[in-house]
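hey so u asked for the seq, here:
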Amino acid sequence: MKILKSITLIAGVVFVLAIALLFTSFATSMIPGKSKRERSIKVTGILHHAFGGESTHDISLYTSVDSGNSYYINRGLEYIALADITACKGKPVDIYYYRHGFSLLDFNNKLRHVTEIRVGDKVIYTELVD
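ran it, structure tokens below
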């Protein structure tokens, strides 16, 4: 009987550790890495809509080329004025977004983290380190 309790205790500890490892790997997969140009993908299109979130301070963007996809600048209202982005509305923009791996929260990669926005040769926003 004592052996059965020990085996049950060990199995319980292994199960809890496995769940903790799974949760940790899931949580860290949501954190973007360092923003470097080689880890970014470029998309060019007409900027249709941009708006800022009051509670999150994020800026969301929608373009003509990616129906169903959206782009966001994490805490963007802290780094750039929304007016600077909305001034680009109707213009062709180059948006660089972070290329990440599989994520359960965004498994089809429809929500894309912006690393840089350019209009022609002018950089509107960047977080690239290189």
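The chain has two helices and six strands. The chain has two domains: 1-31, 37-126.
lmk if thats what u needed
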